[in-house]
Structures are given as structure tokens and as C-alpha cells.
Design brief:
single chain; alpha/beta; Rossmann fold; seven-stranded parallel beta sheet; two-stranded parallel sheet; 8 helices; 9 strands; 33% helix; binds D-galactaro-1,5-lactone
Length: 273
């Protein structure tokens, strides 16, 4: 696979959590080319180790195992956890306890940089006719968005208190192509996802930075000007898919909250009991 990022910077050992998930499977081979050793972790099946890979399956809620997972690691790309709206107890364990365990392990093991897969659902209750940047107050659209807001707060705290740097990626919709009209604004191509993660790993002096993970889409609800120090320059756009998406979804129900708010269907998922 050819990499879209022009100047590779190598790490000795990188950790990728959530390596068996949708975006983990995309990033696993691409991150391998950036490091001598890629340690991959998940609770789902990880397959066999490729040359230069270490497999270390760990539950995020297992604090001792998380400490061991971060030993000898230069930087972490943390995709692990629940990635959709779910009952609170599921989110609590994987995303809230899990994120805390990750940062505590980073502190204990002296890891200096984390790339945290946050989500656009931290601000999902802004309207689709608004443009916001990362300085806008959070408006989470459910348990999942709330857990990602907690992760971003953890990241800020561990920077302020312990000097551990984080780039929080408020990822939009990263799929092979945009599936619906909403994703014309939120789409992040896989090549741009790689560019974003590599920028987040390698940009100097990030402190705690927040960036929206989107391609260079013509329709956009998010302004990344405040994150320009990361040097993330998306190369793809949802525009070539617009005609097909609009033909597939010609009618829009303007009374549906999913078409009114940036979080889409997440804003009306649940309650679960
Ligand atoms: C997310 O955060 C989810 O992990 C992903 O599955 C998508 O649904 C995405 O948001 C989105 O907003 O489209």
C-alpha cells in the first residue's frame, strides 16, 4: 500500500488500541510503516502477528493489564472502546474507566503522547446550519458523546498536571465513502484519516489539541483553523460522491432530529430501558 503522507517519521514502538475495529484495521498496516514495532490490542480477534507486530489483547477496564500494555511504548493511538451509542454501563466500562486506565498507565510508564479517538458526537447537538470550532462548548448527543467529552477532559488534565500530550480527534464519519447526505459534511477518507493520525503523532508541541476529523469537504460544519499548528492537510473530498448520495436519498424529513443536528441519528438513539 502506498502511503499518502510524504515524510514518514519513525517511532521505536507504537501502541494501537482497538486494532480489530473498523478504523483499527485500516490503520494497522499503515502505522506499521511508521515504527519498528507496532503493538496492537483489542478484545476482539487480532489474527496473527505480522513481522514487527506484537499482539497484546487487553480489556480496557483491567487497570493492571493496561499498565503492562503501555510499557516500553513511545506513543499511543487509542481507538479502543465502544464506538456507537449504547447503554450507559457498557460505555462506562470501556470508554470512561478504560480511558482513565489508559492515562494512568501512560503516567506510570512515562508515555508522552496519546492520539485519542474522540468523536464529533461531543458536539452532536449543534445544528447542521451552524459552523463551530473546537472552542465551542461541548454539546454531547448521548452516552457515547458524553464519554468522549470525559476522555477529552482527561486529556486536558493529564497535560496540565502531568505533561502528557494528546491530540483529540473528533472523528466525523470515516468509511470508504459517504453513505448519506449527512456524511457529505462529516466524511473522512481513510487516506485523510492516516494523514490526520500521522500529523497528531508527529506535530511538535501539541499540548492538548482538539481537531475535527474530516476531509476537505465542500459542505462543512467544523472549522479547524484553531488546529492548524498540527499541519493536517486533507486531500480528499466528499464532493465526487454527492450526486450518487443525493440520488440515493432524494427526500429529507426536516422534522427528523437526525437531519437537524450534526450528530445525526445518534441524537435520537436510546433511552435503552
Ligand atoms: C462515530 O463516532 C462512530 O464511531 C461512527 O460509527 C460513525 O457513526 C460516526 O461517529 C458518525 O458520526 O458518522
Amino acid at each position: 500500500m502506498t502511503s499518502p503522507h510524504p515524510s514518514p517519521l519513525r517511532f521505536r514502538r507504537l501502541l494501537l488500541t482497538g486494532a480489530a475495529g473498523g478504523l483499527g484495521r485500516v490503520l494497522r498496516p499503515r502505522l506499521k510503516s511508521r515504527c519498528d514495532v507496532l503493538r496492537v490490542s483489542d478484545i476482539a480477534e487480532l489474527g496473527t502477528a505480522a513481522p514487527g507486530e506484537e499482539l497484546q489483547p487487553v480489556r480496557l477496564e483491567d487497570r493492571a493489564a493496561m499498565r503492562a500494555l503501555l510499557e516500553g511504548v513511545d506513543a499511543v493511538v487509542h481507538l479502543g472502546g465502544v464506538s456507537t451509542e449504547q447503554p450507559f454501563d457498557l460505555i462506562l466500562q470501556a470508554n470512561i474507566v478504560g480511558a482513565f486506565n489508559l492515562y494512568e498507565a501512560a503516567r506510570v510508564q512515562g508515555v508522552r503522547r496519546i492520539v485519542f479517538a474522540s468523536s464529533n458526537h461531543v458536539t452532536g447537538f449543534y445544528r447542521q446550519d451552524e459552523v463551530i470550532d473546537a472552542r465551542a462548548p461541548v454539546r454531547p448527543d448521548g452516552h457515547y458523546g458524553l464519554s468522549k467529552a470525559y476522555g477529552e477532559n482527561l486529556a486536558q488534565f493529564y497535560w496540565d498536571r502531568h505533561g502528557i500530550e494528546t491530540v483529540s480527534l473528533r472523528i466525523g464519519s470515516s468509511f470508504p465513502e459517504p453513505k448519506d447526505r449527512r456524511m457529505l459534511a462529516t466524511w473522512l477518507s481513510y487516506d485523510d484519516l492516516e494523514r490526520l493520525v500521522v500529523s497528531a503523532l508527529t506535530a511538535p508541541g501539541v499540548g492538548h489539541s482538539i481537531v475535527y476529523g474530516m476531509s476537505a469537504n465542500t459542505t462543512s460544519w467544523w472549522d479547524n483553523t484553531a488546529a492548524r499548528h498540527l499541519g493536517y492537510a486533507p486531500q480528499d473530498s466528499s464532493e465526487p460522491f454527492r450526486a450518487a448520495v443525493e440520488a440515493r436519498q432524494p427526500l429529507i424529513d426536516r422534522d427528523d432530529p437526525a437531519t437537524q443536528y450534526q450528530g445525526g441519528a445518534f441524537v435520537r438513539t436510546g433511552p435503552f430501558d
